[in-house]
Design brief:
246 residues; 8-stranded antiparallel β-sheet; 2 helices; 15 strands
Length: 246
């Protein structure tokens, strides 16, 4: 019996150790490492972590379909820099004569003269800085004008003149006179330049089929008279500012 005592003691100690180990595991399961399945279950039960917001790529806005064009507004009336009342006078290109122009509203009168062989009266319209006039024997006059000058071309007696002449004030300007002597109409015209120079012509029988022109007598701008032999001519100023002679 004494020979089995150590073996029994050993077995008893081993059994006691197993019992203690099992009891310890049952009393404190946290001592056992968590299995993978338990970790997975915990992850499943936990609310999902918030995903950081990412900015969505900007989308290009499609261009709007072109709308029907709005009806065009009526254009404003053109504003011109041309005066409505003015008188111009000066020498034509080449110095072969002089020209005078008077504008009153929409009306215009012009005269070109070289003192003898060339003289012609014109009448027409003035609008938006443009002059269009006609005269006898297919003569014509066209020009543009503003507050400073009138520039254009005139055809008279088969001669074409170009000109660019300034605005003038009295006593410079354009004058004309008519008289009837023994049934014949006498007609005279004068252009008085800014320096006092005069150019004029006289038609002794202006209503004849082929009137001839002579140099006009000197006009006294103070009295408005000129003497041709025994005849005294009374000149009327053709003035765009006052409207006289229109």
């Amino acid at each position: 019996m004494r020979r089995n005592t150590p073996l029994i003691t050993l077995l008893t100690g081993a059994a006691l150790g197993v019992v203690l180990l099992v009891a310890n595991m049952l009393a404190d399961p946290s001592g056992k490492p968590v299995s993978y399945s338990a970790a997975a279950a915990a992850a499943t039960s936990a609310p999902p972590a918030a995903t950081p917001a990412t900015s969505a790529p900007a989308t290009e806005t499609a261009p709007a379909a072109p709308s029907s064009p709005a009806p065009a507004a009526p254009s404003p009336t053109a504003v011109t820099t041309a005066p409505v009342k003015a008188t111009y006078a000066g020498r034509v290109g080449g110095g072969g004569g002089s020209v005078a122009v008077s504008i009153h509203g929409s009306q215009a009168i012009a005269y070109v003269c070289n003192g003898s062989t060339v003289e012609a009266w014109f009448k027409g319209t003035a609008a938006n800085g443009v002059l269009i006039m006609t005269g006898k024997n297919h003569s014509h006059f066209s020009a543009i004008y503003d507050f400073g000058k009138v520039t254009g071309d005139v055809l008279a007696h088969g001669t074409d003149y170009s000109f660019s002449v300034p605005v003038v004030t009295k006593p410079s300007g354009l004058y004309r006179a008519t008289a009837v002597v023994r049934g014949a109409t006498i007609k005279a015209g004068w252009i008085v330049l800014s320096d006092g120079t005069q150019v004029g012509s006289l038609e002794p029988a202006s209503d004849s089929s082929a009137p001839s022109a002579n140099e006009a007598p000197v006009l006294d701008v103070t009295t408005g008279t000129a003497r041709a032999g025994d005849l005294v001519l009374h000149a009327v100023p053709v003035d765009g500012v006052t409207g006289s002679g229109f």
